[in-house]
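note to self: dont lose this again. the chain is below, predicted strucutre after it. 277 aa total, dont forget to put it in the shared folder this time
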Amino acid sequence: MDAVSEYVQHDVPWDILYADDLIIADILWAKLQERFGKWQEALERKGLKVNADKTETMVCARTAESLQITDQNGKALKQVENFKYLDSVIHAQGGNEEDITAGIAAAWKKWKELSGVLCDRRMPLAVKGKVCRTMVRPVLIYGSETWTMKRREEERLQRTDMRMLRSILGLTLRDKKRNDDIHRILGVACITGKVREARLRWFGHVQRREEEDCVRRILEADVRGQRSRGRQRKRWIDVVKYNMDDLRLDLMDVENRAEWRRRTRVADLSPEGVKPA
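---
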């Protein structure tokens, strides 16, 4: 794909190409229509075909706006409010609510597939905890490196995680078992701590890249435009700064990769290996 589309690619972030998935972004509708036509022409010249039924358009703005993009045959592309790219849900107005909702649904699906192990009373708790850590939780927090979660979303993620853990142990809220005790029994850490670990690990990975690297340029890009009235939305970099302040970290610590990982890591607990009372 890189060789086929070499002469039609634009600089990141306006063209994002991963395998056979492509995102084209622009500020103006006319330029977007022109560039989509060039991409379609270049790919079809090499024997590839753009599926108009699977190609969607989206306007990233706080207010709903219509966008009419057509292919070379005059067929209009479907405009959507959100779409899934690399298993992450992107919403037109930003935020992570839809992405978290999709992650919760996928995690419950995986949990049900593994319920034969997770709900088996004969299975050791250490094994159940390991299955949950390695096969269920990664699905739940997939893509969390880029999440900018609000308090309500953090609480929703915690409730889902604790509901899964209580189901594994056969407990309900009436049993009045503390969350910390459940984490210790199964040998798992708090889910919000694991999200913070993933976010800081990704931030350190980006910061250690060369200044000319595309991902770092996107992170440090100067976004132009007028600020809206009222309280501003929390940005991803704001959450990173809050996390760094909590752990007493600064940008100088990023250069030492081993030390950065040690200080940002949230270790899982050692399972007790006994059944809850």
